[in-house]
Design a protein that fits this description.
The chain is mostly beta strands. 12% of the residues lie in helices and 41% in strands. The strands form 10 sheets. Strands 1, 2, 3, 4, 5, 6, 7, 10, 11 and 12 form a 10-stranded mixed beta sheet that branches. The two termini are 84 Å apart.
Amino acid sequence: LAADVAQADPAPFDLAGPTIEAKIVRSGRTLPAAQVPNLASGDRLWIKADLPAGQSARYLLVVAFLRGATDPPPAAWFHRCETWADVCAKSGLKVTVPEGARQLLVFLAPETAGDFRTLVNTVRDRPGAFVRTSQDLAQATLDHSRLDTYLAVVRRLGEKDPSRLKQAAPLLARSLAIKVDEQCLQKLPVLQAPCLAQARESEILDVGHGESIAERLTSGPASDLAMDAGNQFKSGSYGPYIGSIFDIARLFDSFHTARYQYLPALTSAHGSELALTLNAPPSFHDPKSVLVVALPGVEASQSPQLHPVNPDEVLCARKDPLVLPVEGAPLVFSTGYAHDLVLRLRKPDGSDIDLPAHPDAEQGGIVVETSSLAALTLHNPTSASLRGQWGFDPYEGPSFALADPHDQAWRLAEGESADLIVGRADTIHLHTDNLSCLEDIALQNTAARQSSVDWKKIGANDVEVTLPLQEAKPGDLTLLVEEFGRHELQHVELHAFAEAGHLESFTLHAGDIEGVLRGNRLDEVRTLTIGRVEFTPGALTTTEGKDELAMLAQSRPATHLNAGDVGNARVTLKDGRTFNIKVSVNSPRPSAELISKTIAREVGSSSVFRLTNHKELPLAARLEFSLRAQSPPFFTHDEKVEVATADGLSSTVVGLGTSGMMLESNKVAVVTLDPIQALGSSAFGPLQFRRIVDGVAGKWRPLVTLVRLPKVTEVDCPAATDATCSLSGSNLFLIDALSSDPEFTNATRVPEGFTEQVLEVPHPMRGKLYIKLRDDPSVVNVAILSVKTQLAPSTETAADHVPGKESAPRPASGPSRAAEGGAASLEPLSRAPAAAPSVPDNPGQP
């Protein structure tokens, strides 16, 4: 059983163990273990086992220094402390890191005869195994701290404020370099926390910094002992976040002495306390369990590579608290290694001021306390840098640009008008020197009532504001801009009108029945009249703050208007008021007359279809059509012809000089169109064309109806004429209905979304089925089919099988009416008299 367990995944680190207290003294300064990322030669350590009162089992505390996988440590590098003795229980153990030491392990061994000597001999006999243990446990502890921080925030928010998880989870993932399952954030808020805490797709991302602190052995004589803990750590509830297995437990699968076996323990640091977590219950019977704890390695200090998320971003110095978005050093957020952080900035008098700061993974950065800036006015912008301590060493972090909104003003962006129109939502843009301190924007009406507005930043200096004026009344309006750290509100004055400021112009092309009216608030227009021709409103669009309204002529076109004419029109609003407006008549739109068209049918199985309407164009066919220029009467060198479906979803443009368009003369052009290449395999329905000359498009003219044909492979029919047949093929959903007669008295409807490859159809009459295609169901087309008929056994053959009747011998040769199994080869369902005409193999157009 023990052998089977050793080959399985290691047990999770989920058993609470004892607590160890540790402090480090360097150059007269004392720091708790949670704030020390690395040890140095000469450091003085105070270590004490914090065991429960009344502890019945006696533990021997042993501190051992290591100096490499291939170099056993001297016996003098081992220090013992009997935790049951008063001196050790109260004062702990004080040791000094010797010169040349590289790792430090702490053992908690149950008291037994020869315990200390056994531990010393075991470590000295196999130093490489304990070197690897030290490094792997140190790396695992760092990853453990990242996951602990992540899970603590997720669970706390899941209990107190689930709605914040969707915003906090990406910031946590960025700060701690943990991949989060995005699908969890699409669930209901109450379900997001359990999903994020169990998501199998999440994992600790390798950032390399922790590996350097753990001093993994990646080169030299001990390289075979290396283990990438960042990718191989697995423990208890943390397992779902890691891709593979950290099998440190297997390190000691077969490694124990007669008295001891060794259990690795992970540490969770809080100040000077190191809480131990075990992956197996300790044993107090031989072999007894020794707890193995790793402290940070003895190595050179490496400062965290922290950097701003957006180096060009300018932050608001007046936010309290101010968050500096940073990434690149997850240990800053998950450990206490970075401490006594401040944001240092220069005051106007030239002196420096330090603002207290601390890392916060939930907010995705370094949180700075800015209340001490309330009485100061800063230069704009001001540069500030992050300073502090990384363990015992000074730390200089990245710099940030800060803005002070004290003297900046808000105004309408260039080109924006303060005149608005009530009755509909409107959009304006505001401009200022810096947007970093913008907190909120509200709208105040003439009655001093405020309402919220939607706004978004669209650059470093501009904000787009959407004003809800649907229920507003005409009059003065005020935008109230609120900024962090600024008590007074900024005011931007506006004015709302009940009608348009002006009607700008009306333009149409000579001979058209539709023109364009330009201005503001054109939704109030009822009619426009030129002479005796009345135009009524069509579609209204708004572009860059200007309305454009299509006006359609009623009953008659404005034939008395010629290109170049300039006059006036009378515009009548819905409230009865009238205005005069300038009219401009442009040259006629380009136009062309369709002379002829030719459809080159496709080759293949779809040729079984005979389209009865010459206006139908199969998608796989090729179309050639010719045009005669009308206005202007000659084709030009930059001439273009656009072909599009009536719904506008698919279109193509061909021009002179391309393979798709050729001039027969300067008045006649021939256009070649391959629909499937030009419009795509999903194009269908009526096609239309228009000329485009000098960027001006003409009116759409009808061309053909584009239809898609299914592919039919065979029709299998039984001998009985009143039974249905099976039609096999693909894309059968392109058929709307089938019938054996052109009147569709016995029709088969194909349901929408049909995806089967076989369709039950009526018996084809003389090899014909009548088809209505889904792309043009108003037209009845013909399919000429080869029918595979299952013939019934002959009377003579049937008689041969009558019980008790002796069958006559079968002739040795001669034609057979049916092959074995009763199936005939492809032939029509009904045999016509000899004099009846047969359907030709390749019939022409019906």
